[in-house]
Amino acid sequence: MGLKTCFTDHSLFGFADAASILTNKLLKFTLSDVDHVICVSHTWAALDPFTVSAIPNALVSKDFRPAENPPSTSTITIVVISRLFYNKGCDLLVATIPRICAQHENVRFIIGGSGPKAIDLEQMIEKNVLQDRVEMLGPIRHEDVRNVMIRGHIYLHASLTEAFGTVIVEAASCGLYVVCTQVGGIPEVLPSEMTVFAKPEEDDLVAATSKAISAIKSGTIRPELFHDQIRQMYSWTDVAERTEKVYDGIMKLRSSRLIDRLKRYYGCGVWAGKLFVLCAVIDYLIMIFLEFWWPRRNIDVARDWPRKKVVRQVSTSPTDVEGVENHNGWVSDLQDRE
Q1: What stretch of H or E contains 119?
Q2: pLDDT class of 173 with cuts at 50, 70, 90
Q3: At a CB cut-off of 8 Å and minimum separation 6, what does 110 contact?
Q4: Which UniProt keywords apply (predicted)?
């Protein structure tokens, strides 16, 4: 139809199974004919870099403030808040938590979240008799995440695939030192002084966590100072401005010719490219038939959303208010201007 299109994605699909491989292929087919793509990190689909913008997620920093009285470092608390699925590294947690507890007697864990891997974590706790050192909270509402995080010193993120990882930004904003796997777009999220990176392997994750524990005990890291940096790095105002520029740029583009769009489909693979071209041609012919059967001139055009004219009463001088003052002491707010 030649409509201006922007696709925004906040996730990554791996290649661990046939379903994921097929999903990636279909995603490439779909995105071959969009004007622009917004993603949350540079680790994304193999597309023309001129058509992709990496705009990260953000957070309301005041909702993730550090604790006024940070917990004592006599006992180091490691927090994990995640969906308990395989791709979130729950198998790694099952393997590493007993080893970390064995190496460090003054370490305890708080695990929040739900999912099919919760039973594996519960069995690990029972098997290693860690009931007094590992606390399972179950599902946590988002508004309660800060209350859980400020109980800890370290946030452990063992994910196997991740496009961005907003939760590690929330953890750093709450004043936690972050231990995370070096996968997907995670290395782009936080500066090195806030994180300890590990390979998604059991031994490396244990070593990285032990390094973070030592840093917290020695006082060489001051996580409570991270909040101000996060507030400046991840602002929704900045995200909105960057997104608006992408939309403005799309509207200035000229519509592509059909032959150019088919060429992009054809470049998706030796066999897949031919199949994608066939699908696109069939869809185009269906659109032509529908245009003939029910022309667009017979379809009602949606009206523009009406804009209300906001009026406020003024009791002070006209310099104290926004808008234009009328002789009767009322001010129109100018929000209805085009």
Answers
A1: helix 118-128
A2: very high
A3: 77, 78, 79, 80, 135, 137, 148, 151, 152
A4: Glycosyltransferase, Membrane, Transferase, Transmembrane, Transmembrane helix
What's the CA gap between 89 and 86, in Å, rounded? 6
Nearest residue to 112 via CA among 161, 152, 56: 152
Nearest to residue 58, comparing CAs of 233, 224, 184? 233
Mean pLDDT of 35-52: 74
Strand extents, DSSP E, the chain: 6-9, 36-39, 52-54, 76-81, 107-112, 134-138, 154-157, 177-181, 195-198, 311-313, 324-325, 330-332
Q: In the structure encoding, which two tokens stand for residue 243, read together?
A: 């997104």
CA distance 224 to 234: 17
Question: Helix axis angle, 166-173 relative to 226-233, nearest 10°?
Answer: 140
Q: What is the DSSP letter of 296?
A: G
The conformation of residue 17, written as its DSSP 8-state character, comes to: S
Angle, CA of 312, 313 and 314, to the nearest 5°: 115
Q: pLDDT digit string (tens) for 251-265?
A: 888 777 778 777 877
